[in-house]
Amino acid sequence: MSVALKIARRELRAGFGSGLRGFRVFLACLALGVAAIAAVGSVRVSIEEGLAREGAVILGGDAELTFTYRFADDAERALMEDLADEVSETVDFRSMVVVDRAEVERGLTQVRGVDAAWPLYGEVGLDPPMTMAEALETRDLPGAVIAPLLVDRLALSVGDTFRLGTQEFELRALLLDEPDGASSGFGLGPRTIVSLQGLEGSGLIQTGTLYESQYRLRLPEGTDLADAETAASPLEATGARWRDARNGAPGVAEFIDRIGAFLVLVGLAGLAVGGVGVAAAVRAYLDGKIATIATLKTLGAEGRTIFATYFLQVSVLTAMGVSLGLVLGAFAPLAFAPVIEAILPVPVAISVYPAPLLEAAWYGTLTAMIFTLWPLARTAQVRAAALFRDASIGAAAWPEWRYVLVIVALAVILVGSAVWASGIPRLALGTAAGLLFALALLALAAWGIRALCRRLARARFVRGHTAVRTALGAVGGPGSEAGSVVLSLGLGLAVLAAVGQIDTNLRSAIQRDLPDVAPSYFFVDIQPDQLQPFLDRVENDPQVSRVDTAPMLRGVITQISGVSAQEVAGDHWVLQGDRGVTYMAGPPPDSEITAGQWWPDDYTGPPLIAFAAEEAEEIGLDLGDEITVNVLGRDITATIAAFREVSFENAGIGFIVTMNEAALAGAPHTHIATVYAEEEAEAQILRDVAGAAPNVTAILVRDALDRVAEALRGIARATSYAALATLLTGFVVLIGAAAAGERGRVFEAAVLKTLGASRGTVLASFALRASLLGAAAGLVAIFTGALGGWAVMTFVMDTDYVFEPISALAIILGGASATLLAGLAFAWRPLASRPAQVLRARG
């Protein structure tokens, strides 16, 4: 090691003196990959820190208790007041803003009724500036504030009046900032805030109406939140749900964590692309050290000494590349902090955090070792005599098996680290398998392209076509750039192709299904005495093809077979919050019942449940298990009698939990309905239903799906940016390959010119070989990207996949253009060189 260290130190000193010319691509590829992962991780941790630091502001209090379909009774309110210094009561539900003009206009909104104490933490942003007390006080009419999007949509101005239910309100200000808005989750409409007193005359809060009441608590300073939760546990037994500032916005936190993990996986794909460039740079560097290696072997140096010498050099350069990437990844979020804070709807504590930097450094170091060990290990296998014959390192045999085993072990550690750190092991394993498959396929494609071009170069039909023949010969001959170009550019294009296929399929799935299967409207909060008039209106409309209705309650699943539901099923989405509950007397179609037996129409025995089959399988439920559902503060324990197929894909009515009618007898409830109508009839149906029953809320399914699609587009944009970073790394590798081959092209151009070829012929040859390699990389990328898109849509999104040709064509053209530009950029020196000087120097 002492000899190896001495030689490595001297060669590195010489390399630093020449500006590390041969390792620019090495450093750039490693730095870009590490920077992408570090930046994504830093933003994710910044959001988590922001959520933790501002947890009370985001939640609206130190703790929150939520009741479904009801307000807290006097005893429950007294318990909360004993716990807290101050309690704020709010109510949240959907409704319709109605503006009376020549033609009445309506807009879906998420209404929040607040008391005088709201908000306990944070400040509300209003335009024009005023206090909430001024904005909501009752003058001639109660006041209200509305989000700008809905104000613009309904063409309202400050001072205008509108209706919620049967109550008139005056618009006092635009709602610019709702301090606890992030804790409210996804809403189908923009926000409207009014006072609880103003809502009293609206007729919107009735028995069975779909609403939630929230009680935010300002706890005494120094209160332990875990102890406070224990003290409030009697309320949870009556159906209340507890949240506190430790996790003020769990949905947002989980969403950010999953998206961040997914982007890190995409960043690992970029690092794999960089690894190809790293391997190519090391191989080219070692090719340039043939004379040195030959001399060392002649003087008696063992293979392990040579390996240690260059391993030490590569280790130092790896540390430099990783460090450079960490600096870029740490300071990029700081540089773009204003943009990040403006885009995200949650507080962000932008800073330098060690954890994501360590994760990025770990991934970068492992990747560098995996991709450099192969060429380093092969160096020890080359004989000195072969090196003196001007052989290439790349022509050496496979390395010893011990090195191969180490490479495999490092790859397993890298994949295992990604699986463990991501929190989404299935997706992480799928990503790793996809990358390995793509790399293997690209390597096979590169070999196939070389073999095909070698054969075509000798074909009769290319004789006389100098540019074509020389291009094919260069691609298929020794020292070809096919491997580096197809691997690096192809993998970057494959990631981008997969993202494009997924994005297009997500959009088209919504748009494709909407006209055929989705209802026009969801109507909610239909009171029992309003159901028959509603049906009389819609069922007698010739432009209405179908109407479905169901009784609707909300309940929280609290226990499974006498054990806490969370202990049995963890954080399954069915247990997160309250779920829709309905009852049925007669059975559904036989095709829907997958197991068990339905109860008779006149059944009045112990409560029975039909549970959604797919969700039951995920949770691990069996026929005969007991499920406890808290409905309006009352626990109902029922036995699973049947499993039924429930589909949510067509945006129709679907319930996870269906009970027999007698089990819910006497429970106040409303009805929901879906109406399938011609588009031109939708406006009149809305006017008639809302005019007859102002409390009924209509949700236009098309608008709701548009909001979902917009959220998906945001995810696709974020993923596209990460994929573009991967493609940038591939382009750096491509430029490195073109630069490394420049010397060979100089000699080739000199020979061709000597034989009478014109500059145009030489340039055409260079352009053709670059285009061939780019198109080949694009073709393989389309196949692997389409396969990846199919896997995500089928196994993750659980929907159909349709190949999208436009983005695929763009990938091919982009690949060919990228390699063409890189090839032409390094073609001018070979074209400008004088054959005599080149041949004399080479001789």
From TrEMBL:
Its localization reads: Cell membrane
Q: Identify its membrane topology class.
A: Multi-pass membrane protein
Which Pfam families does UniProt cross-reference here?
A: FtsX, MacB_PCD
Q: Which segments cross the bilayer?
A: 21-43, 259-286, 307-340, 360-380, 401-421, 427-453, 721-740, 775-796, 808-828
Q: Where is the MacB-like periplasmic core domain?
A: 28-232
Entry keyword set:
Cell membrane, Membrane, Transmembrane, Transmembrane helix
Gene Ontology, cellular component aspect:
plasma membrane
- Record keyword Transmembrane present: yes
Q: Does the keyword RNA-binding apply?
A: no
Q: Where is the ABC3 transporter permease C-terminal domain?
A: 266-379, 723-830
- Name of the protein: Drug:proton antiporter
